[in-house]
Each structure stands twice: as structure tokens, then as C-alpha cells.
Specification:
Helix content is 77%, strand content 1%. It is an all-alpha fold and 482 residues long.
Length: 482
């Protein structure tokens, strides 16, 4: 049965199916940003240093990124409903564990498990949308999904501040539990199964382990440059080991694996390939923005957690507005113009916010550029999701969504590691000549300047995209409902 036929026989209303997908996507994105505001207090309780605190985020993001492709293939092989419920269960249980963590080691280990749950869950959410909505309804559904996903990044700062300030940092994890319970029950009751009838249920676990290990080794090497030089044996060993694992991953996928995790044929689609390059670039800069602003608000401007959280509220509104505007304009102007406008606004926003000073006011120096960057994020994610899935057979919908989410998460993890290292080096070089606040601010300035350069490169990459409108979506095929 085709997806179109499945949609015709499905009794659950569209708004309910869309809600099932959006709630889960909100959870997995929220869990990256909600931790940021809580990091200072969490670090004090669990004895994290400034650099090691990154691993509370990176442990989640690395397993998330490394196993996203596997999660995408699981959605294709085993069906969107089963994979969704599996992911939501792992993610919710790990959230409970993180909330009760007593040591830094426990926290990092549980966050890795939570990332695994997110990697299984996230591709299923986009697969649910792509296999449910057809024609002009698809851009609107992806727009809602993108708005919720983007808002999760900004709302996380607000919610994390409120929970940390009024209760405890542990509640930034416990808050996932009611979301997970509601999403799991509703999906079990109302979500019909759709799977690829031609798929053979064999997963490339070796590929997932190789790519996850390679990424983790490279990022660990970058993060450790705050204590070991780039030319030290420790740094070089981790870098060489990571690169070797990534090369082994490429060889395994191209020559050995009978059912590769990432079939290279999917990159024959210029639309998908270019969209992933752009997502890798812009996703990384936005990901790091929340991290640096959190420490700027609390460490330099001396905001409390609640005030720092509310400082992110206008950005959450901007993301939602950008995503909704983007989804309504795709059919009229096409994908490429929206991406070009979004990348331009992001570049201007990062340049502007790089002018912050130790005594800058929120309304004078952060509100407008922060709003611009967040609005750009909302504009970008809907057309990127559409570009990445429009030229792909619906039998590979899970794979396409997994690749796109992987690009975003890998870009975010690498950007955080590299930009945090650059910011720390800049700060340390100035500590002997300026105040601590000025030194930290200069580090954040440098990170935002590099972010502006990266988003400008993303702008140039948009010219490689084929011209697509919101209606340029191939018909679904090779899947069946059960």
C-alpha cells in the first residue's frame, strides 16, 4: 500500500499525527538547550570545570549524531510507530536517570544513553510527517515541525532558567517525563504503522560504532586543546585515531557493508547533499550561540538563572515566527531565496552580536541581533528539511531525515568544541592585561565573529541548490501501512 493510500485509510486526524511528531522533536531539541542555563549550578554540584562541562552537552550530542543514521534506517525497516515508541521509552528513562545523577561520570554516561534515545526518536518524527502529508500540505507540516524544533532550542533557555532558579537543575531532566508519557500513550493509541515493504531488517551497527567513535575522538582532541597543545602527543593521538575511525567508516560503508548505514547513492540528489552542507554549517553556529550567551548572561552580566532564561524568550518567539513565515512562503518564492535571506540575516546577526562588551545592555546590544539570528534559524530549517527530503524515494524517508539531523548535530558538536576552544584561548591570552569579564567577553566576541564567517559560507553554498518550490516533492512509494 502506498503512503497516499495509507493516508486515505488512516482514521487519526492530521493535527494529532503532527502533534505526535512535534512533541517528540521538541523534547530532543529542548534537551540540548535546556541544559545550558543549568550548567553553572550543575557544574558546581557535580564538580565540572568550564571545559569539562561541555561534555554534559557533547555526550548527548555525539551519541545523538553518531546513531541518527541508524535510527533513520530503523524507522524505514521496522516502522515509524515501533521505532518512535522505542525511542521515547529510552529517552524518558534516561531523563529520569540524569535527574538523579550524583557524579559527573554518571551524568555523562546517562547523557550518552539519552542521546541514543534521541537518535532513535528524532528521525521517526520527520518520517511520520513525510509519510503522512502529501502535496502542498507537506511544507506546512514541515514548517510546524521546524518551528517546534527551533523553538525547543530557545524555549530550553527560558525553561531551564526557570526550573534551575525556582527548583533545581535536576528538573531540567525531570521535565521530559510528562512529555514522554503523553507522547508515548498517544502514539501507541493513534499512530498507525508504516514501513518499507522492500526493506530487509538488517542494521549496520558496525557503521554506527565507527562513526560515533571517530567523531567522539576528534571532538575530544579539540576540547582537550585547552590543556594540551595542538602539537602534543595526546592531541595528535586522539585526532589521528578519530580520523582513522572515520576513514574506516567510509570504507566500511562503501565496500564492505551489505546493508550500509549511509548508502552513498542518496547523495546523488544535489538537493539533499547541498541541504546537508548548509545544515552542517548553520546548525553548528546556532547550536553554539545558546552556549555562549548562557555564560555571557550569567558569568559576565551576572544574571540569575531565571533572568537568563527570560532573556531567551524573544529568540523563541523569533524562531516560531521565522518558521511559520518560511512555511507560508515556500510555495510562492521557492526554497533557495528563503535560504539566502536566512543565511544573510544570520551573518548580520552574528556580526552585530560580536560587538558585545562587558557592560553591554540587553536591549541595546543583544535583543535585536539575537532576534535576527533566531528569526534566521526559523527561516532556514523548513526549506532545508524540504530540500533534504524532496528528491528522495519515500522508502528512504527515514534515512534522509537521519542524514539531515546528523548534519545538524555533528555540526553543532564540532562547532561547540572548536568555538569553545577558540574562545577559551582568546580569554586566557588576555587575562593578564584586562579584567576577567573583559577577557571572557573577548572570547565570546571571537566565537561570534567566526560564526558570522561560517554562515556567510553557508550563504555561498545556497547557490548550489537546484530551484525547488514547496510543491517539488516526489510521490511516495515502496512503503506500506499495517
Amino acid at each position: 500500500m502506498s503512503v497516499t493510500e495509507a493516508a486515505a485509510t488512516r482514521h487519526s486526524p492530521d493535527w494529532l499525527i503532527l502533534s505526535i511528531a512535534c512533541i517528540a522533536q521538541f523534547m530532543v531539541v529542548l534537551d540540548v538547550s535546556i541544559v545550558n542555563v543549568a550548567l553553572p549550578q550543575m557544574g558546581a554540584d557535580l564538580h565540572f570545570t568550564y571545559s569539562s562541562a561541555q561534555w554534559v552537552i557533547n555526550a548527548y550530542v555525539l551519541t545523538f549524531a553518531g546513531f541518527l543514521l541508524l535510527g533513520g534506517r530503523m524507522a524505514d525497516f521496522f516502522g515509524r510507530r515501533l521505532v518512535y515508541l522505542t525511542g521515547i521509552l529510552i529517552f524518558t528513562l534516561a531523563s529520569i536517570g540524569a535527574g538523579f545523577a550524583q557524579t559527573g561520570g554518571q551524568m555523562i554516561a546517562i547523557r550518552a544513553v539519552q542521546g541514543l534515545g534521541g537518535a532513535i526518536l528524532a528521525p521517526a518524527t520527520l518520517t511520520i510527517i513525510v509519510t503522512t502529508f502529501q502535496g502542498p500540505r507537506l511544507p506546512k507540516a514541515i514548517g510546524a515541525w521546524s518551528a517546534v524544533a527551533g523553538a525547543g532550542g530557545a524555549v530550553g533557555g527560558l525553561l531551564g532558567g526557570i526550573l534551575t532558579g525556582w527548583a533545581s537543575w535536576r528538573w531540567v531532566f525531570f521535565i521530559n517525563v510528562p512529555f514522554g508519557l503523553v507522547a508515548g500513550v498517544v502514539a501507541a493509541l493513534y499512530l498507525r504503522e508504516i514501513r518499507n515493504r522492500d526493506a530487509t531488517a538488517k542494521l549496520d551497527v558496525t557503521g554506527s560504532v565507527l562513526v560515533t567513535g571517530g567523531l567522539a575522538s576528534v571532538i575530544y582532541a579539540v576540547v582537550n586543546t585547552t590543556t594540551h597543545s595542538w602539537t602534543s602527543s595526546t592531541t595528535l593521538s586522539w585526532l589521528i585515531g578519530g580520523v582513522a575511525l572515520l576513514v574506516a567508516f567510509l570504507f566500511w560503508e562503501g565496500r564492505v557493508a551489505s546493508h550500509p548505514l549511509m548508502p552513498f547513492r542518496i547523495f546523488r540528489s544535489r538537493s539533499l547533499s547541498t541541504a546537508n552542507v548548509i545544515m552542517f554549517l548553520v546548525g553548528g553556529t546556532f547550536f553554539a550561540m545558546w552556549y555562549f550567551l548562557t555564560y555571557y548572561f550569567q558569568g559576565v552580566l551576572k544574571y540569575g538563572p531565571v533572568k537568563a532564561g527570560f532573556a531567551f524568550l524573544p529568540m523563541a518567539i523569533a524562531i516560531i515566527a521565522g518558521a511559520q513565515i518560511s512555511s507560508r512562503l515556500i510555495n510562492r518564492v521557492g526554497v533557495r531565496p528563503l535560504l539566502q535571506v536566512g543565511a544573510t540575516l544570520a551573518t548580520l546577526g552574528f556580526l552585530w552580536i560580536s560587538l558585545i562588551q562587558p557592560h553591554s545592555s540587553y536591549w541595546g546590544s543583544i535583543f535585536v541581533p539575537g532576534f535576527l539570528c533566531a528569526f534566521a534559524m526559523g527561516l532556514l530549517f523548513s526549506p532545508l528539511a524540504l530540500s533534504a527530503t524532496s528528491g528522495v524515494d519515500r522508502a528512504d524517508a527515514g534515512l534522509a531525515s537521519g542524514v539531515l539531523n546528523t548534519s545538524r548535530q555533528v555540526g553543532g558538536s564540532l562547532a561547540l568544541a572548536i568555538l569553545a576552544t577558540v574562545a577559551t584561548d582568546r580569554t586566557h591570552s588576555l587575562l593578564h592585561s584586562v579584567t576577567i569579564a573583559a577577557a571572557h567577553t573577548s572570547g565570546y566576541q571571537r566565537a561570534f565573529q567566526i560564526s558570522a564567517a561560517v554562515t556567510f559560507i553557508a550563504l555561498l553554498a545556497t547557490f548550489a541548490l537546484p530551484r525547488l518550490s514547496g510543491r517539488a516533492v516526489t510521490p511516495a512509494q515502496s512503503v506500506e501501512a499495517t
